């Protein structure tokens, strides 16, 4: 603190020193806006880690397949009792000791270090198959610009036929390799290129990507919600899904 400040004068003098609000504010540290931006990017990263394609695509299907509302009951119980506390524990300890998943569990107990390694392996596999899904999404994105839509056909189920014969181009049996699906290979290359550009400069570039990647799923969810509510029998379907 400066020697000529009024707070210092009060400490070394018995005279009454009058302090104004401006004097008190002058002694406060300036707001670190850069740190605030980093905190926002960190929060968006956690939101993006929690909400992804699975929430849009897979979870409603699994919920409906496993009993609808009856499936939601144990899911919410386990989410509140186990899922959220463990997630918060790992984040809180990681922020406190400035370590990753492996370091966090080794810090909690050296015998639990294997949990950190397992978590990294799981994240690796999730990253691998999620990029495949992104490749499929890119393929469908480019195909959606065609008119008429390529999956508007009369052979079997339109979407099923297009998925297996056009998108995946599967062979007739497991003994036939079927060759290289160059369209899907290019889409997968584009997906990995996007990931590479997002992390090319480390946390600095990946943090800026979070503004789009974390908020865009909510835009898609809102669009799907509006579209779903406009379909015939939407209310009956929602009641069937949430009724145990």
Automatic annotation (TrEMBL):
Membrane-crossing segments per the record: 42-60, 72-93, 114-142, 182-203, 215-235
UniProt membrane topology term: Multi-pass membrane protein
Keywords (A to Z) from UniProt: Membrane, Metal-binding, Sodium, Symport, Transmembrane, Transmembrane helix, Transport
InterPro entries in alphabetical order: Na/ntran_symport (IPR000175), SNS_sf (IPR037272)
SUPFAM superfamilies cross-referenced by the UniProt entry: SNF-like
MF annotations from Gene Ontology: metal ion binding; symporter activity
Cell compartment(s), UniProt: Membrane
Binding site for Na(+): 48, 51, 55
GO process terms (BP): alanine transport; glycine transport; L-leucine transport; proline transport; sodium ion transmembrane transport
Keyword Transmembrane helix: yes
Cellular component terms per the entry's GO annotation: membrane; synaptic vesicle
The keyword Membrane is annotated on this UniProt entry: yes
Family: Belongs to the sodium:neurotransmitter symporter (SNF) (TC 2.A.22) family.
Family annotation (PANTHER family): SODIUM-DEPENDENT NEUTRAL AMINO ACID TRANSPORTER SLC6A17, SODIUM/CHLORIDE DEPENDENT TRANSPORTER
Protein name, per record: Transporter
UniProt organism field: Balaenoptera physalus
Organism classification: Eukaryota, Metazoa, Chordata, Craniata, Vertebrata
């Amino acid at each position: 603190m400066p020697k000529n400040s009024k707070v210092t004068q009060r400490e070394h003098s018995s005279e009454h020193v009058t302090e104004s609000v401006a004097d008190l504010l002058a002694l406060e540290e300036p707001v670190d806006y850069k740190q605030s931006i980093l905190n926002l990017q960190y929060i968006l990263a956690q939101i993006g880690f929690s909400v992804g394609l699975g929430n849009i695509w897979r979870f409603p299907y699994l919920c409906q397949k496993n009993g609808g509302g009856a499936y939601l009951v144990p899911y919410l119980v386990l989410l509140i009792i186990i899922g959220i506390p463990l997630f918060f524990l790992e984040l809180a300890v990681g922020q406190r000791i400035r370590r990753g998943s492996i370091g966090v569990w080794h810090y909690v107990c050296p015998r639990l270090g294997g949990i950190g390694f397992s978590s990294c392996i799981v994240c690796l596999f999730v990253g691998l198959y999620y990029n495949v899904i992104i490749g499929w999404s890119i393929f469908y994105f480019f195909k959606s610009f065609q008119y008429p839509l390529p999956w508007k056909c009369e052979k079997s189920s339109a979407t099923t036929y297009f998925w297996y014969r056009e998108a995946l181009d599967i062979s007739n049996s497991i003994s036939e390799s079927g060759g290289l699906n160059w369209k899907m290979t290019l889409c997968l290359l584009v997906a990995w290129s996007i990931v590479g550009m997002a992390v090319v400069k480390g946390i600095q570039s990946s943090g800026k990507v979070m503004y789009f990647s974390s908020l865009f799923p909510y835009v898609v969810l809102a669009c799907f919600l509006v579209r779903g509510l406009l379909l015939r029998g939407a209310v009956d379907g929602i009641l069937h899904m949430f009724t145990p």
